[in-house]
Amino acid sequence: MPNAIATRQGPYVAPSALVRVLPHAARWVLRGDSSVMATAASTLGVPFVERPCQAAAQSDCAALWLGPDERLLIAPADAQSELAARLQTALAGQPHSLVEVSHRQVALEIAGEHAAVLLNSGCPLDLHVSAFPAGMCTRTMFAKTEIVLWRTAEQRFHVEVWRSFAAYLSKYLALAAGELAA
Amino acid sequence: MLLINCPYCGERPEPEFVYGGQAHIARPTDPRACSDQQWADYLYLRDNVKGVHNERWRHTHGCGRFFNALRDTTTDRFLATYEVGHEPPATLKGAHS
Q: How do the pLDDT tens digits run along chain B, 97 residues long?
């Protein structure tokens, strides 16, 4: 019998000089109080940060602040089942909600001198490095789609978008990049 | 673009927010003791203020939190925003009926 298990393919992403698709990752949305967040941070091996709109990252893992009681946890795809088990064990007994969303969204990286200008084509946030420094992250709007925006370096952004919106977002970015080049 | 000061995230553009109706409406502690009129007033009757209005907003496309705001309905200017469960700033409190 042929192998009936389909291989998962990423969504269509329009090619663009400043944009690239990041490899598949494991993701969870964690909700709970600050002790839950501290436990999850130590399990993931990232610093515990309680400041609003701040991301904590260490090696390939990251915990992004989405709300006072909400974090987006990102880890390498191959560590998914092992980390899920460790998170569940560590958080057992504490009221929390841990939802696996690995396949719900895809990550794009927007890098280069004009990365912030490109993002501002659809995102009204002030992305000047003094207002949105490296390490800052937030959920926000890009044109008509919701994204999680994380500045990983002065000229590099990590964008999380729901996979069904990835084509729309990347086409919009490709169009804007064309205008920048012109 | 109109900027709204989220008590958690700071100043953000208006499209990230959703209006959530009038604020500080307390549910009657004993609904069975209410007359039909009192219950209907609680459910449906809202102020239609020309001037400073207490309202709830939700930072839907940001931190996802509800918060309260004082907004002047004639100028669309936000006078203050504060967390749910808190009273409006004392200096502005008298502005609302």
A: 899 999 999 999 999 999 999 999 999 999 999 999 999 999 999 999 999 999 999 999 999 999 999 999 999 999 999 999 998 887 775 455 4
Cα–Cα distances (Å) from A107 to A19, A113, B1, in that order, read 10, 20, 28
User: Residue A45 belongs to a domain with what CATH number?
Assistant: 3.30.1360.120
Does residue B85 sit at the A interface (CB-CB below 8 Å)?
no
Distance spanning both ends of chain A, measured CA to CA: 54
Question: Minimal Cα–Cα distance from A30 to chain B, Å?
Answer: 13
The number of domains in chain A is: 1
pTM score of the predicted model: 0.89
User: What's the gap in Å between the CA of B25 and the closest CA on chain A?
Assistant: 24
Q: Mark yes or no for CB contact B63/A140 under 8 Å.
A: no
ipTM: 0.87
* Contacting residues of B for A141, CB less than 8 Å apart: 13, 15-16, 61
Q: Report the candidate in A17, A23, A22, A21 with the shortest Cα–Cα distance to residue A114.
A: A17
On whether residue A99 sits in a domain, the answer given is: yes
Query: Does residue A41 sit within a domain?
Result: yes
Domain count, chain B: 1
